[in-house]
Predict the 3D structure of the following.
Amino acid sequence: MTETDVVTDVVTGTDDATSPGDARADAFIAPVAMEDDPAELFAGDTGTLDADVRRVLVRLLQRRFLLAERHPAQWRTLLAHQQLVESRLHDLFVHLVVDHERGIAYKRQVRSAELDVPVLLRDEPYTRAETLVLVHLRTVFQRERGAGETSARVDVEELEATALTYFDADDTNVAAHQREIRTAIARLAKEGVIEEESEGRYRVTPLVEVVLSNERLVELREWLRTRHEAPAPAGAGDDGTTDADAPSDDEDDETQDDDAQDGADDDEETAP
């Protein structure tokens, strides 16, 4: 052993009996086998989530709801990696709500009086027509479930006729109101509140209970009954808009532009 070797051994605290394996065990960062490194999904990728989990995370951020019935594969992925997805959302000050009974997952903005929380999501109230349609859908769903039925169905004509009764009777622009109602039905169908089984015939999904709770339903019914005599309830605008119980939507409008393409994907992903 040379003089240089002796000095080096003293400084590092090793001796000739130390094996290479022991030195590695004492290292600050344990070595990771190359085959265990996360694979890059694109050039410069530093993410650690699998591709399927990333897609679920993106869908939760882009869309108002993730429905097990429409997207069974993504629902299974969410349940398998729920804690991980939840942690990623918490990093953005966003709550994840998973309703196992109804098969629905959605997000909510974290709000705190003690903490400065940047707002990522915004509340997007339903329009007057959407509110009127929702109230009728929730009423029918509640009635049919109370009668022991497993599902509730409505016709577009029924929705249209019921909603029209709440518009100003002196307003002769019925065609414009009909268009509002048809647009409202289309949005609620896109969100999954109703599913079109045949042309003009819809099944009301359990999502309606999440969007409009029973307490909120009673409040809105009373407001509709006395709307010309009393002010609107908290959360309902003078024009009939309401926030219902709907989860927040994204602040960035660009995500809404993706909905058209995403809606086309829904048709394919719904199929078993």
Notes: The beta strands are 65-67, 94-99, 104-109, 121-122, 152-155, 194-198, 201-204, 249-250. Confidence is low (pLDDT under 50) at residues 2-18, 250-272.
